[in-house]
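Table S4 entry, Oxygen sensor histidine kinase NreB.
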Amino acid sequence: MVAPAEVTFAPLLLGGIGLMVLVAGAFVWFVVSYQQRLYRQQLAQRAVEAAHQQALLAAVIDAQEAERARIGRDLHDDVASSVAMAQMLIERLATHDTADDPAALFGLAREVLGAAVADVRSTSHQLYPASLALVGLVKALERLADLSRHSETLAVHFEAHYPHALPPAAELALYRICQELVHNALKHAHGATNLRIGLHQAKTKLVLAVEDDGCGFVPEHSGAATLAGAGVGLRSIDARVQLLGARLVQRTAPGQGTSTHVELNHQAVEL
């Protein structure tokens, strides 16, 4: 007796359904496991980003504390001592001691107070450059170049092509980067005769350049500068560069001077 066709087809149908269920289950397992792996990767990436932001914040805080300590030393060593000297001279004037020349004492007191006023102005400019708030980044950098000329014997050159201004917070960050780079050059570029500061915009790229013809040094890495583990000043530069979304490139060699460029996309800066 021949079995009906639907009876012989039933095992094939059940097998096909079972195979489809198995394939569907494998697909669901793959999707779930992939999503879990992707979620774990996202968590790891967020942890890395959070740690990076914490490192940037720590670098900025360290730089601020170091700046406060330096300003405190300047106020104590320069301003406070000058004011104390002026006070002593005025007290000598008040005693009417015939052994002293009042005109000479008065002139000396005025000279000491003038030096104290100059120190206060220099310190306040370092705290926040008034020219930056009033007339913008170019004038502030010109003022920085002028101060560098007065404090050192090397020739300081400044050039700028800056037709489109950055937001104020970005300008302040770029100014602080330049300030620290100039300070490093004046302190460490032994034998230098020229220091060049440049701010140039070409299309959407803005480049801040600080270059000297001093002693140079052996870089740890070629190309993009790696500032991890460096001093507080360089860590603050690195932190501000990253906050700007910029790229820092430093080229140097013994006896060949040092060239440091900060390159940023003008349109991408939003602070």
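The longest strand covers residues 194-202.
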